[in-house]
Amino acid sequence: MTLRRDFHQHPELGCEEHRTAGIVARRLTELGLTPRTGVGGTGVTAVIEGQAGPGPTLLLRADMDALAVTEEADVPFASVYPGKMHACGHDGHTAILLGVAECLCAHTARLRGRVKLAFQPNEEGVQGALAMIADGLLDDPPVDMALGLHLWAGTPVGEIALAAGPIMACADRLEIVVRGRGGHASAPWETIDPVVAAAHIITALQTVVSRNVRADRKAVVTITQVAAGDTHNVIAERATLIGTIRSFEPETTRQVRDRVRAVATGVAAALGAEAEVTITEGPPPVVNDADLTSRVRAACLTVAGADQVIAFEPVTGGEDFACIAQQVPSCFFFVGARNEGEACDQPHHHPRFKIDEGSLTVGLRAMLASVDHLLGA
After folding, report:
1. Neighbouring C-alpha atoms within 13 Å toward the C-beta of 81
2. Dist. CA 106–CA 369, nearest whole Å
3. H helices present in the chain, as ranges
4. pTM for the full predicted model
5. Which of 89, 195, 234, 365 is the most exposed, fewest CB within 10 Å of its CB?
6. DSSP for residue 126
7. pLDDT band at 377 (very low <50, low <70, confident <90, very high)
């Protein structure tokens, strides 16, 4: 808990996790491990060799980065850096994995094969996992399977949620640049107003999911940023819209991308403007391996009662653990961190986001039980 609070008080954004990574590397060294630093930028890895005989290599991953959010949570260990906050629980993930490492190092005689620890940077920037993979995360030794967890504000503390198959969505970045003809705001008939065209595009995009995606599929198209002009009496030359596309199935993803392009360009053309659509592919959906998820569920039942190990309802949030799950059989599960009585009831990325710290113990025990179930002698 002390370590988690230290991380929370000193949040670092993606690719800037130098202090956090330094603490992680030092702790791993104190445990007798040989950490590798600078993996994928500021990532840290280490290998714990089991002593009970040959076996698979199991990767355990935790993300370290914070968000560009100014903290409003009333806690004595609030962020000391304005504009930076652990508003998603990554401070807890890092602390949990360090606790797991300490316990495993004390019980290597029980382990077959080995555990590879991965402390990942820049999950929020959806580039950290790919950067670590490119830097050899899944090699030397080759990884056979992977586990990750997320402290989850949508689930009460004490519960563990997981499910096989797609559980989190792809997370594309959408940018639409609308070009018109600028001029004086007092004479709009002499211009092609990109702001009006952008407004019509935003409205039209609301039909992409409701009128194109099958009712038994999930997808989201959201515009989150609108920018145009510099002053009140000038019609700008261009307007920029930024947002995101979320979905689970490749077919739905392709359909939504195509419709977004067609709607944006078509609406702009109807109003005499032009629209340039750029879709930057983010991480794919997180897809849990069915067999591995079943084994992790069995392990979690030794930590929490049958009524507290629940099915996870897929969400349209994104998570770049998906890039690891594309390469090796993986299970990503969720540890409840919500406690309304303790005001731990705000959603992720909210400036008053807090977790019930009892979730740290549940997460630690669930991860240890999973390792024992998968690698235990």
Report:
1. 16
2. 15
3. 2-9, 18-30, 90-105, 128-134, 194-212, 250-270, 290-300, 322-325, 358-375
4. 0.91
5. 234
6. T
7. low
- Give residue-wise pLDDT tens across range 322-348: 999 999 999 999 999 999 888 888 999
**Is 6 assigned a catalytic role?**
no
pLDDT tens sequence across 209-241: 999 999 999 999 999 999 999 999 999 999 999
What one-letter code names the amino acid at 116?
A: K
Let me know whether 98 and 160 are in one domain: yes
User: What length is written for the chain?
Assistant: 377
- What is the C-alpha separation between 272 and 32, in angstroms, rounded? 67
Are residues 132 and 83 located together in one domain of the fold? yes
Which among 257, 280, 303 is the end of a domain? Answer: 280
| Number of separate domains in the chain | 2
Helix count (H) and strand count (E) of the chain?
A: 9, 16
- For 112-166, the pLDDT digits (tens) are 999 999 999 999 988 899 999 999 999 999 999 999 999 999 999 999 999 999 9
- pLDDT tens figures, 235-263: 999 999 999 999 999 999 999 999 999 99
The one catalytic residue in 123, 289, 319, 357 is: 123
Same domain as 291, residue 143: yes
Q: Give the integer Cα–Cα distance in Å for 55 and 61.
A: 19
For residues 217 and 200, the answer to whether their CB atoms sit within 8 Å is no
Active site residue 357: no
Residues 346 and 212 in one domain: no
Number of CB atoms found within 10 A of residue 110's CB: 15
Amino acid, res. 5: R
